[in-house]
Amino acid sequence: MCECQRLKDRVAIVTGAAQGLGEALSYRLAKEGCNVTVADIKIEKLQEVAKRIEEEYGRKALAVKCDVTSEEDVKNMVEKTVEAFGKLDIMVANAGILIAHDITEFPLEDWKKVIDVNLTGYFLCAREAAKVMVKQKSGVIIQINSKSGKKGSFRNSAYSASKFGGIGFTQSIALDLAPYNVRVVAVCPGDLLDSPLWKESLYDQYAKRLGISKEEVRERYLKQVPLGRACTYDDVANVVVFLASDEASYITGDAVNVSGGVEMR
Fold first, then answer.
1. Is the distance from CB of 152 to CB of 159 less than 8 angstroms?
2. Are 183 and 164 in a shared domain?
3. I need a surface site. Which of 16, 169, 182, 243 has the fewest CB within 10 A?
4. Best CA proximity match to 161, nearest among 119, 120, 132, 202
5. What is the pLDDT of residues 35-77, one digit of tens each?
6. Whether residues 81 and 200 fall in one domain
7. Is residue 4 one of the residues assigned to a domain?
8. What Cα–Cα distance (Å) separates residue 57 from each residue in 54, 190, 191, 236, 243?
């Protein structure tokens, strides 16, 4: 990998940055030269992430507690970023949750929670970022979507619905913002089988639902991947950095697959 900084002196916000993919994306953006606002509801862990960015990557970092479903929190996150760094170049809307049920057993409360975080949260982050970027006449909004935003997901209807909606929203606001030189794109990762979401939740959920062991769940998902391995944080980060860079200046409204061939549309 080239050691040059492709995003030198740009300012990024990453939501859901306290762990997992969001944390990894925050470090990668810092490595590429960004000053980064890391946002999440877990403020103590966020402060550790911000400290590492400053100490290990030599970039400025701001930790902001933010519930992406709260309009006030999201406005505060963007305002503090602009106050601290003077601008906003990259919004990475990564915060998300997954709650899976069979449709006949899906509690309304769980359905609303998934839609609220994954879709409404993205809307709020994009809207507030766009207000800044329109004035600048520059910027990139990147949603971390999913292969489940391209194809229905078995017993996972709320998550898939939220991600399909995210792609439609991405395409729509890409049209709205194109006249202002603001690009909007989605990234659709495959299964991050070594992530906290899988290790702390999904393996247990799927093993119970399918009546098999967690190890068998992992094998079942790996067998679906033409390239034969799980998606990694680096796989996703490579695409995010490219899409945020000037090299992708003619790309907007797209939803880019990073799925090892599982999804090809």
1. no
2. yes
3. 169
4. 119
5. 999 999 999 999 999 999 999 999 999 999 999 999 999 999 9
6. no
7. no
8. 6, 28, 28, 20, 21
Compute the C-alpha angle 25/192/55, nearest 5°. 25
- The Cα-based distances of 38 to 49, 52, 87, 231 in angstroms read 8, 11, 15, 23
Structure token digits, residue 41: 């509801």
- 26 and 56 assigned to the same domain: yes
202 in the same domain as 149: no
In the set 57, 159, 203, 221, the catalytic residue is 159
Domain count for the chain, please give it. 2
Structure pTM?
0.96
Q: Are residues 200 and 239 in the same domain?
A: no
42 is in which domain, residue-wise?
A: 11-190+232-253
User: Pick from 83, 11, 17, 78: which is nearest to 51 by CA?
Assistant: 17
Could you count the other beta carbons within 10 Å of the beta carbon of residue 6? 17
Q: State yes or no: pLDDT of 3 exceeds 70.
A: no
Please report whether residue 146 resides in a domain: yes
Neighbours of 151 (CB within 10 A): 15
Does 146 share its domain with 161? yes
Q: Whole-number mean pLDDT of the chain?
A: 96
203 is catalytic: no
Q: 236: exposed, middle or buried (C-beta count within 10 Å: 0-12, 13-18, 19+)?
A: buried
